[in-house]
Structure formats: C-alpha cells, structure tokens
Design goal:
The chain has 2 domains: about 70 residues, Helicase, Ruva Protein, domain 3; about 200 residues, Rossmann fold, CATH 3.40.50.150. It is elongated. The strands form 3 sheets. A 7-stranded mixed beta sheet has the order 7-6-5-8-9-11-10, sandwiched between helices. Strands 1-2 form a two-stranded antiparallel ribbon. Strands 3-4 form a two-stranded antiparallel ribbon. It is α/β, with parallel strands linked by helices.
C-alpha cells in the first residue's frame, strides 16, 4: 500500500533533494512552481494547506520533475511552459527561455507607446514573448514577429493562439536575406549577444540545455546582429521611429557609439533591476 504524503512532507523531500544544488531562495521558488503545476496550489494555499495529502500519481510527477531539476534542467523546459509579463508561453529546447530583463524591456516599450496605431517589428522573436506581450497590451498596435527557423515559427504560432492575439509571423534570416518592403514605427530585438569568453560566468542549466545559437555570437564581432538590424532600420524604420534592444551588459557604451555612428538620436541606455546596462533605445 502506497504511503500517504502531505504537502509538508513533500516540501521537505524536495528541499532535501535540491538544497545542495540550488540556493535556498531558488529552491523555494521551484517548490512553488512545481506544486502549482502538479497540485494546482498557489503560494498562499501552500501556507494554509500543508496537511493536505496528495495522490501517489501526483507524487510520482513531483519526483520526476525533481530528478530532472537535479540534473539542472530548466524548470521551464521540464514543464514545457513559462510565465512572461502575465502571459503563458510554450517552451521547447529550440527556444530561448524568456528572462526578467526582457520583461523589463517590454514594460519600457508599453509605457512609452503612444495611444495610437503603430506598426511594430520584433526581430529574432524566439518564443514570441516580446511580440505577443506587446500585442496583448497594445491593442492598437500591429505586430510582426520574425525568426529564421521553422521550429521557432511553429512555437510562435502556437503561443500567439494560446494567448488569443493576432500577430504577423515572418520566417527570414536577417543576416542573409532582405525584409519585405514595409515600414515600421518601432523595431525591437533581443538578439544573441553573449561572447564565448563569457561562458565561464554562466550557469550549467543555461549552457547544457538552451540553444547555443540563440545565446552566443562571434567573439570578434559581438554586435553583428545589432549592426544588421540598425542597417535594416535605415530602410524600414519611419523617420522619428524608435529602436529598442536588449543588450550585453558589458557592451553598453559600444552600443551607444554604434547608434551615434548611424545618426540615431535621443539615445537612452537603461539599467535593469540588477543595475546592469541591459537595454537601449534610440530614435531615427
């Protein structure tokens, strides 16, 4: 006969399994995510329902998730989904997991956006997180999402449908192909920007499980995507239009110089919540 387990015992078990691998705060956050996913209990419920028992099947699911976490597989890939700016996104190994700083970039754009119709292009959309969050929160905006792989395009379509938003999706390799002959009021991108020399500072759960090509660029040409997008903006961004980028925290001043070189003005380098240079915007 299977042993009955209450939430208190389950929480203790997960902590025992993960505490030597993750910091305590991260372990607690993972516990909340696991129990929300498996038992459908939010954080506040966990505080008052610790004597609640769970089924053997639920415990087996929790055990399976915990085993994968011990291998440092990202929780988002284990569950196949993540939350981003109050939307839910499907995630798979082909897709870069959206980060907090990307939410900050989206929030910046939404707060800046005028209350009128605007055309937005999201270059290198990945999961579609930026494009979908903007479409969801800016109902007057017409949003186009662009990426280069069919498996990425497929997940963007799924995520747009999941969140009940209509966006246009284009498959194109911007380094080697021209964009359709259209213009935009705003271009945003979170392109690859990590230099190989920065690998040693990155966590195993990123290096072992997330797509290399979505993270890393050539050491000698780390701004390759930004240069190309700025070049495209020269043709496809309307006068006085804006570009927004998420950037490498160590390359903020290089980005400012690049924007100035291409005659952009009103350049604003912005720090994230961790006080790192992670975002920049400029006007054509």
């Amino acid at each position: 006969m299977d042993k009955t387990r209450n939430l208190k015992d389950v929480i203790r078990h997960i902590k025992d399994e993960l505490n030597n691998i993750y910091p305590e705060r991260e372990t607690n956050s993972l516990i909340e995510i696991i129990l929300d996913h498996v038992v459908k209990l939010k954080k506040t419920d966990l505080l008052i329902n610790r004597e609640q028992t769970i089924t053997h099947q639920q415990f087996k699911k929790i055990e399976d998730i915990t085993k994968q976490l011990k291998k440092q597989k990202p929780i988002q890939q284990i569950l196949g989904e993540t939350e981003f700016y109050n939307i839910t996104l499907k995630i798979n190994p082909h897709i870069l997991i959206p980060r907090q700083e990307t939410e900050e970039l989206v929030d910046w754009i939404i707060k800046d956006a005028p209350p009128q119709k605007i055309n937005i292009l999201d270059v290198g959309t990945g999961s579609g997180c930026i494009a979908i969050a903007l479409a969801k929160n800016l109902p007057l905006a017409s949003v186009t999402a662009l990426d280069y792989k069919q498996e990425i395009i497929d997940i963007v379509k799924e995520n747009a449908h999941l969140n009940d938003v209509k966006i246009r999706i284009i498959q194109s390799d911007i380094l080697n192909e021209e964009l359709p002959n259209e213009t935009y009021d705003l271009i945003v991108s979170n392109p690859p920007y990590v230099r190989p020399s920065e690998r040693e500072f990155m966590k195993r759960n990123v290096l072992d499980f997330e797509p290399y090509e979505s993270l890393f660029v050539n050491e000698r040409n780390p701004l390759i995507f930004y240069r190309k997008i700025i070049q495209l903006a020269g043709k496809h961004l309307l006068d006085k239009g804006l570009v927004y980028f998420e950037i490498n925290e160590h390359l903020g001043q290089e980005m400012v110089r690049l924007m100035k070189k291409h005659n952009f003005r009103n350049i604003c380098l912005k720090k994230d919540l961790n006080n790192k240079d992670r975002m920049i915007k400029a006007q054509k």
